[in-house]
Amino acid sequence: MKYAMIQKGDLSRWFDSLKDKGKIYGPKKKEDAFVFAPIEEFEEMALEYIPTILPPKKYFFPAKELLFDFKVQPLKTSKAIESFEQFILFGAHTCDIAGIQCMDIVFKEKPEDPNYLNRKERMTTIGYECMHYCDAVASCAAVGTHVPRGGYDIMLTDLGACYAVHINSDRGESLVSGKSYIPEMTEGDRALLKKAQDEKAGKFRTEFKSGMEVVDKAFTGGFFSKVWQDVGRRCVGCTNCTAVCPTCYCFDISDEMGLDLSEGTRYRTWSSCQMDDYARVATGEDFRPGRDGRQRHRYYRKFQYPVQKFNKYFCTGCGRCTRTCMAKISLIETVNALIDDEGSPR
């Protein structure tokens, strides 16, 4: 691992040097919330922010994506995306980087997704480490995403008057190499970083009432828990929770035909397991007809199924689902209720 330092006053200077490396996307204030958006000038960015409305996955897994155009007679298709843009994701939190790592696992499975992988290959990630909680609904410490665990090219850590710069890839090295205002870290700087990390460790704690071993046990035995009935009664089926989740990857495919029905366009769009018709098949059977079953499925898709398949939690603890829920359903409260129900007599 290689570390460097940059003074806060030089960050805008460094930002300007990145502009010829590709389009820059970063966190930006929008009314009372934050969004990832194109950044032209460093001053537009808000590095201290509550997780954005939508996660950065929208840049490599678009909400609506043109796959190809086609003609019916004779059947012929054309390549929809001729080239993919080089871009930099600046200021991503560690929870969102963890979400990107989850998406990588999914879309690298055979058959690999070429559009996703082409976009990811052209993305440079500059992370920004949270040194305190963004708000009360985050559960990042419980799932271990509050600290950097790879998946980035550079990570910035706030040390007061300066930032520690963790260079984690050759691509990251190319962004800082040869810049006199980004010197290598000294022993004194390392002591500063260690002090900041120790102070941070004292601020974060497991947000659930028990550790993840107990949470795992609660999900293993909680499939028929009354907790899901309660959550189902409260859920309004708005699908906000899945729309803002950094690790939801379900999609639908649709064809839009021209007026003469001789040609059309195929699109891929985000879908949601919380939709009424999501699990309904051609015969009219619905494998998850109630909101209780759909909400249960969503939680199991974060805390048990991916652990069984990929050995990884697909909840990053970002808190977006809780913030955006119209029924005020809290992920932390739901998991704690499941822990309590697991320990109660049946």
How would you describe the overall organization of this protein?
- This protein is 34% helix and 20% strand.
- It is α/β, with parallel strands linked by helices.
- The chain folds into two domains: 2-203, no CATH class; 212-247 and 276-343, no CATH class.
- The strands form two sheets. It has a seven-stranded mixed β-sheet with strand order 1-9-8-7-6-2-3, with helices on both faces.
- Helix 7 crosses helix 13 and helix 8 (227-234) packs across helix 10 (291-303).
Strand content: 15-25%
Mean pLDDT reading: 95
Distance between the amino and carboxyl termini: 51 Å
Main sheet characteristics = 7 strands, mixed
Number of domains: 2
Please describe the topology of this protein.
Blueprint: E1 2-7, H1 11-17, E2 23-30, E3 33-38, E4 64-71, E5 76-79, E6 87-92, H2 94-107, H3 114-121, E7 123-128, H4 140-143, E8 154-158, E9 162-167, H5 170-176, H6 187-203, H7 212-221, H8 227-234, H9 240-243, E10 251-257, E11 263-270, H10 291-303, H11 305-310, H12 320-324, H13 331-343
